[in-house]
Amino acid sequence: MAYTTQDKLIARYGESLLVELTDRAEVPTGLIDAATVTDAIGGAAALIDGHLQGRYTLPLSETPPLIEEVAEAIAIYRLHRYSPEEKIKDEYKDALSTLGKISDGKIRLPIQGVEPATKPGNGVRVTDRERPLTAANMKGLI
């Protein structure tokens, strides 16, 4: 499932940047290569699904704005053939950090009807028993 679209990438980053990143023809056409953008969006969706699959039922019934934002940051980073500028790198690192927090359960997505999977405990057992402190059982200590 794609979490963003080419139009949303244009709205966030501008058409000129997408033309610059995707027009890889021998003779530049001055147009956005939709197939290249679709590949980047698909790669971003695969990365996001990899983080969400252990916690949420996929495909998501709706795409939360946070996931759209993460998908846009990952897709624009993936469109760069060479080293992107610092802002793009920082957004990508933040997106990966956010995905990590979602998969760890530190950030929960506001999705109706989908509850994160619960884990069957952490292995800690607590035994609660009465431990009376009397002179008889403290003999030798007092």
Radius of gyration: 25 Å
Instruction: Report the structural category.
Output: mainly alpha
Sheet of most strands: none
**Shape estimate:** elongated
pLDDT averaged residue by residue: 87
The stretches of 5 or more residues where confidence is low (pLDDT under 50) are: none
Q: What level of helicity do the residues show?
A: 40-55%
Strand content: under 5%
User: Quaternary status of these chains?
Assistant: single chain
First-residue to last-residue Cα separation: 70 Å
Encode the helix/strand succession as letters: HHHHH
Q: Helix tally? A: 5
> Tally of extended strands?
0
Descriptive report:
The protein is mainly alpha-helical and 142 residues long. The chain has a domain at 6-104. 49% of the residues lie in helices and 0% in strands. It has 5 helices and no strands. The chain has helices at residues 6-13, 15-22, 34-52, 65-79, 86-104. Helix 1 (6-13) packs across helix 2, helix 3 (34-52) crosses helix 4 and helix 4 (65-79) crosses helix 5. It is elongated. The model has no long low-confidence stretch (mean pLDDT 87).
